[in-house]
Amino acid sequence: MTYLTLTSSISSVRSLCRSGRLLAFLLLIPCFSCSSEHKAEDDRAEQPLAVAVTKTIDCLPLYVAEEMGIAGSMGYRLTLVDMPSREDGEVALMLGKVCGVMTDSLRARNLMARMEESKRINDVLQRQEKSLEERIAKAKGQEKKELVQNLQALRKKHVAMKVDTLSLFLHDNMPLFLFTNVRARIKQTKQLTDKMIAVDRKGSERLYAEQIADSAEIADKVFYVNILSMPIRQHMLMNNSIDAVVVTEPVAALLCAAGHKALRHNVRRNERMGCLVTARGNEDIQKIYNAACDSINKYGIHHFDSVLTQRMNVTKQALRHLTTKKMEKMSTP
């Protein structure tokens, strides 16, 4: 039986050799092997990173990193998730939908404080649950039924947390501008008395507006309207729905192109109001950001006008109004 099988196998090999198919088959084996190895290496090399961004100038390096393949050359598959506001990005981060979010320093510190408070609440609830479980083990009848119901109600009070550790990286790529409606004819900050200013009330923009009001001694005479989306603030000013807005670039450039004037700005003040917040294990987003900053500084910001127009909705007329000429690298606080 074995002899017949061996004879048959030898005959098959001789047949393949005569037809030349064996040689072709043997040559293909290493190709398949190499292809599989390379695919496995590529899968390992491309670590996915999703970052929540807004169409603001502080996010430009990440758009450049994605468009120009900088992230890919560093071994990462970068995905940018456009958000209407920074708050939406922070929610996505805490729900585990993204690895990082571009926000401002004040919002970032508030986010960390809320996370620590949530952890504290969950710790208290866990201790209460353990105590109830011990009582349930000893209880009987109606008492046990009531304790089980209490335990179920207690578990529903837990704060859902997909992220338990955050890292912060500060930068100075978020210049702020206070724009007033051109029809309001406001020439001085004192004229903001009884006026409405659109800001993010939990962010650095409100802090900046308050500093301006304090300097003009009208702190208690200004009304702050909470508008989270910067493009909405832009349209409100252009449609005469608000007296003043605090924005960053490129929205500031778009307003300039529309004929509005900046009453105040903090360009070149080195206040480091911008911030990247990452979940634990995704700190390399900072390296990608800084590498893109090097490219922007090397070639000039207008070398990437196509990114600004196509990805950030900046008009060609607004490009010449951009005041940002250099992107600063981010670092830990």
Question: What does this protein look like?
Answer:
By secondary structure, this protein is α/β, with parallel strands linked by helices. Helix content is 50%, strand content 16%. It has 13 helices and 10 strands. It has helices at residues 2-19, 21-45, 60-67, 70-73, 86-94, 105-138, 141-155, 204-215, 230-238, 251-257, 285-299, 305-311, 316-319; strands spanning 47-53, 76-82, 100-104, 166-171, 177-180, 196-199, 223-226, 244-247, 261-265, 274-279. A 5-stranded mixed β-sheet has the order 2-1-3-10-4, with helices on both faces. Strands 7-6-8-5-9 form a 5-stranded mixed β-sheet, with helices on both faces. Strand 6 (196-199), helix 8 (204-215) and strand 7 form a beta-alpha-beta unit. Helix 3 (60-67) crosses helix 11. The model is unreliable at 1-14 and 16-44 (pLDDT under 50).
